[in-house]
Please model this.
Amino acid sequence: DAGVIQSPRHEVTEMGQEVTLRCKPISGHNSLFWYRQTMMRGLELLIYFNNNVPIDDSGMPEDRFSAKMPNASFSTLKIQPSEPRDSAVYFCASSPVGKVTEAFFGQGTRLTVV
Amino acid sequence: AQSVTQLGSHVSVSEGALVLLRCNYSSSVPPYLFWYVQYPNQGLQLLLKYTSAATLVKGINGFEAEFKKSETSFHLTKPSAHMSDAAEYFCAVSDGNFNKFYFGSGTKLNVKP
Model:
């Protein structure tokens, strides 16, 4: 299995632009998580899905952030418009529901908003 | 609600010395506990997990952790540190509900030659 795949690995964009981060979870995993990692705030859970349905989006910082999971093999995290304070590493993770197991993380997308 | 506290944002040990990274948890239900390691510019990788079986859990790279309910702790240890152990380590707890994970703030381990 290729693991959780995120794209792009690096993204540099100008303030005000729309940014879309992509994630392909491990096949057969029913839960998908988006995390943000910064020096100041550590690892924060933004949103998680179960069977493509958003279960808890209380970690989404503001309305500029949105996430979708149109099918079991794809999810996006969109920031519109982007701001410099959104600069961070964004991780996607997946896990199978039905048994307690760990979350499997992707390599992350390093976002820089200038 | 679940949460974890990692004591010490930075720990420095000499190569060959004991590694001890501390984690205390709070959980209203029997917890499931995890330790992850993150190398620079990488994602998080599972070291070990506790899921209510044996209280002493052995993981990869010689690490182990002991679940102590009375102390609400799940400290990570390794008898002899290696240079390649230098990384950031995260403790996490889950209540098993949709496998939602709560991560600690992380501990950066530095290994001196």
Observations:
- The radius of gyration of chain B is 13 Å.
- Chain B has a mean pLDDT of 91.
